[in-house]
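User: Teach me something about this protein's shape.
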Amino acid sequence: MSSRTSNRIAVLKGGPSAERDVSLVSGRECAAALREEGFEVVEIDAGVDLSSRLVESRPDVVFNALHGRWGEDGCVQGLLEWLQIPYTHSGVLASALAMDKERSKQVYAAHGLPVAESVLVSRTEAMRAHPLPPPYVVKPNNEGSSVGVYLVDENANAPARLDDTMPETVMVEKFIRGRELTTAVMDGKALGVTDIVTSGWYDYDAKYVEGGSRHILPADLPPEVFAACLDYAERAHRALGCKGLSRTDLRWDDTRGLDGLILLETNTQPGMTPTSLAPEQAAAAGISFGDLCKWLVEDASCAR
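Assistant: First, the predicted structure itself:
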């Protein structure tokens, strides 16, 4: 954290990614909370003029509320390093690693964390024949929030028909049956475990449309599985080199006990509304949304 007084905060939101709409909400909520905490806040919708707008606004700290590519993959972090403006959440390398699903899984595996079998294939190959025995999922290798995720079930006669928004290279990953779990990590310490209950596949709508999912916090799990969720999330946070706040998503096949717990991915810019998963866990741990946002500002730095 810089020694200078951090009173003027630039909240970055929106941006050009597929998660723009979610980021606009996160940014709005964080800006409101920071104003309530006494900060002077300027909200910036991140576009091609971002560097000039940052120079003009002269913030003491940037609160990064961007989600998805450009804002969460190391690009904006690199710009902020170049401008020497302290910023929240993870740095360049951790952001880039976490956004690249294949490389982050390689890091997890190297640190003894359990991951699902997967392959990278071209979009054409994914539609020509089954890259893996069904069931499996097909998803972009570098997007978040379940953007562009296809589930191919075990009885599928043909592979997925991907739309034109899918990138040229996609990840095909073995589908792990069971429960959707998530654990937020703040300052290296896991906050809790949430069981995410949906009526079907946990896709983009299930995450962000009202009534699309239900959060059970704390998750009702066997003690050894609950403890493993906390441990895996903390280890993933450290292995990738994350800073500030992160959230790690897991799947648990309860027919296999602890062996059924698989780490999916780590989000370095988790959703930031008062009812988002990470702030929910912070609130359950006694940390208000305003206090969480204030702590992220106080934790901000360069060379993260």
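Now, about its shape. The chain has a mean pLDDT of 92. The radius of gyration is 19 Å. If you'd like, I can walk through any region in more detail.
User: That's plenty for now, thanks!
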